[in-house]
Amino acid sequence: MDETQERRILIADNDRARELFGLNDSHLRFIEEGFDVTIVPRGNEVIIKGQEDEVGRVVRLFNRLTAIQERGGRVTERDVRYAVRLAREGDEKPLADALTDVIVTTYRGKQIRPKTIGQKEYVDAIRRSGVTFGIGPAGTGKTYLAMAVAVAAFKAKEVARIILTRPAVEAGEKLGFLPGDMQQKVDPYLRPLYDALFDIMGSETFERLMDRGVIEVAPLAFMRGRTLDDSFIILDEAQNTTPEQMKMFLTRMGFGSKVVVTGDITQIDLPEGTRSGLVDVQRVLRNVPGISFYYLTERDVVRNDLVQLIIKAYEAAGGGGTGSHPPRPRAGRPNGSETQ
């Protein structure tokens, strides 16, 4: 049996200690609940008491959290909860590298960063690959992070345009019965993309760049027959494309362009019996150089904790989408020759 041990950790200053401990030491209490230890705060120092192995895990946990502060990041309740979960699962990947990677700064001065190790690896895959498929459940930041990387690439003059597209699955005959011109008819399908860009760029900048044709938000059908050079192109909700639509979209890519395709294969809204292009493309392009497949999981959900539990429950019940897909790599690992 392990011996009882006491370890002390000195935090750099009182401000960092208050941030790390949480309001009324709430972060410390949460850490205590996750491990069989007692944590006693004293000024900018914490004393950790318990069995040797548990104390060692908590010490490593504090080291990971203080490393975030040393890299210029802030430690939030979400970060503490995520770090505790990683520590309990024995995941020792560098947390500070992920949570301090500033992708882009919004017009309000907010820094957009990955919030999980999986999100950091996904962002890295986008940066280094010509075409990246981000596949995972709702709330994992697939589209928002891709847009942040796109805006960063545009600001750095790596691309001249940003093009965002989605399939309007329910358009068909119903589209004609909606009021307004074609743009007004498809706007409801594209609204989530507008909202994300408003949040990153601000509505005035977004509208100005839209008017200049630098940013384009359009339904997937509008991509047919075009060649898109020097562009950062994002296809969202790709699980609702057919294989033919997916091929059409991917072959629009021109010189100097980068493509990100996002989707959730458990939420396919295609008619019964229709194959999903996102399911099909994993088989077709799995071993093509320069193409990455990255799979985010419930561990990367950054919404309410209940969302993770909901996703796990649906997975345990057999998923929630139509169509099958080939065996995928271990959760969170990229696949594709460029990212191996």
Automatic annotation (TrEMBL):
This is PhoH-like protein. The keyword NAD does not apply. Keywords: ATP-binding, Cytoplasm, Nucleotide-binding. Its main location: cytoplasm. It comes from Symbiobacterium thermophilum (strain DSM 24528 / JCM 14929 / IAM 14863 / T). It is found in: Cytoplasm. The keyword S-adenosyl-L-methionine does not apply. InterPro entries: P-loop_NTPase, PhoH, PhoH2-like. Residues 318-340 are annotated as: Disordered. Residues 111-315 form the PhoH-like protein domain. One of its GO terms (cellular component) is cytosol. GO terms for molecular function: ATP binding.
